[in-house]
Specification:
By secondary structure, the protein is mainly α. The protein is built from ten helices and four strands. Bound molecules: fe (iii) ion.
């Protein structure tokens, strides 16, 4: 398993640019953090939310998404770096999926944006494998004993996204309305959608 993006020349270049711009007084680290937060929480995950909303309302799309995540996501116009080998795993009443990168921070950028800080934290990366139920309960997600928990280890080769279950409370809503209810944590698998 290789994780070449950790030494990605683009990342090194970005860091050098940030340092230069900050030193020259052209931007502040706070402004850059604000932009990153925006991509972590708003812009990025909205792509994933649209994918999930489409899958919930279009059974044929859902099948294509589960069979070939990359191509189905490209149908909606999303793609690019860190999304080339994207696999979508489906939550059901019997199986709950959760995603991690145990070695670093591999993450499906085209659908979820930038990873949150906790995703990159060594504690999450090691504990979600060893004691997934305990970690999920710390996120506020209590799963019944009979539900099987599957932990998917992302890498530079394969990145995972969770297709959450559609709660009964959201039955009958259109794609746009549904998308507004689907947040990042449900697509990483540390939360469910809805009440
Ligand atoms: Fe990684």
């Amino acid at each position: 398993m290789s994780h070449e993006h950790e030494t990605d020349p683009r990342a090194i270049r970005a860091e050098a640019l940030e340092t230069l711009l900050t030193e020259q007084g052209l931007v502040t680290p706070e402004a850059i953090d604000g932009i990153l937060r925006h991509y972590e929480q708003d812009v990025g995950p909205m792509n994933g939310a649209r994918v999930v909303a489409r899958a919930w309302t279009d059974p044929a799309y859902r099948e294509r998404l589960l069979a070939d995540g990359y191509s189905a996501i490209a149908e909606l116009g999303f793609g690019g770096p860190q999304g080339e080998h994207l696999v979508v795993v489906e939550n059901t009443p019997q199986v709950h999926n959760v995603v991690v990168c145990t070695l670093c921070s591999c993450y499906p950028w085209p659908v979820l944006g930038l990873p949150p800080a906790w995703y990159k934290d060594p504690s999450y990366r090691s504990r979600i494998v060893r004691e997934p139920r305990k970690v999920l309960s710390e996120f506020g997600l209590e799963l019944p004993e009979e539900v099987e928990v599957r932990v998917w280890d992302s890498s530079a080769e394969i990145r995972y996204m969770v297709l959450p279950e559609q709660p009964a409370s959201l039955a009958g809503l259109g794609e746009e309305e549904l998308a507004a209810h689907i947040d990042r944590d449900a697509m990483i698998g540390v939360a469910k959608v809805g009440p």
